[in-house]
Specification:
The chain is α+β, with helices and mostly antiparallel strands and 136 residues long. It has a single domain, classed as STM4215-like (2-Layer Sandwich). The chain is built from three helices and five strands; from the N terminus they run ααβββαββ. It has a five-stranded mixed beta sheet. A hairpin with a 6-residue loop joins strand 4 and strand 5. The longest helix has 14 residues. 24% of the residues are buried. Pfam families: Tail_completion_gp17.
């Protein structure tokens, strides 16, 4: 197994999201790797947790990356968050991303969970994706 591709995968995912015109129309440049500093945008995207497991075989070292991309909104309902989540899913599901290291074998949508946060004023949608990578 190799965790060596994790940074290259995150960079490619971020780039794909940042360059998408539909998502940009919804969230602007509000795509973050952590909670935004300062004033929090009304609607933003956050790259989240990741679990990595070995997926090596006889021909290559590889890994399966299960990662989360979250949409957070202070909107009264879920509509804006769901529109952003749909745009993210459209960008990433079955995407053919070029990595700075290794190779993306496949990228698929796994699940989504929409919920109100404890304060009741914010909405959150967590989208789970699975990437299979090889590190040749």
């Amino acid at each position: 197994m190799s965790y060596g591709i994790a940074a290259a995968l995150q960079t490619a995912v971020y780039r794909a999201l940042a360059e998408d015109a539909v998502l940009a129309g919804l969230v602007g440049g509000a795509i973050h790797d952590a909670a935004p500093a300062g004033a929090v945008p009304a609607l933003y995207v956050s790259l989240g947790p990741e679990e990595v497991t070995d997926a090596s075989d006889k021909t290559a070292r590889g890994a399966r990356h299960d990662f989360t991309v979250s949409v957070l909104s202070d909107g009264a309902g879920f509509l804006a968050a769901k529109q952003a989540a749909a745009a993210i899913s459209d960008v990433l599901a079955d995407a053919d991303l070029t990595l700075a290291r290794g190779r993306l074998v496949g990228l698929s949508f796994v699940s989504a969970k929409a919920r109100r946060l404890r304060d009741g004023d914010r909405r959150r949608i967590d989208l789970r994706f699975r990437a299979r990578v090889e590190d040749n």
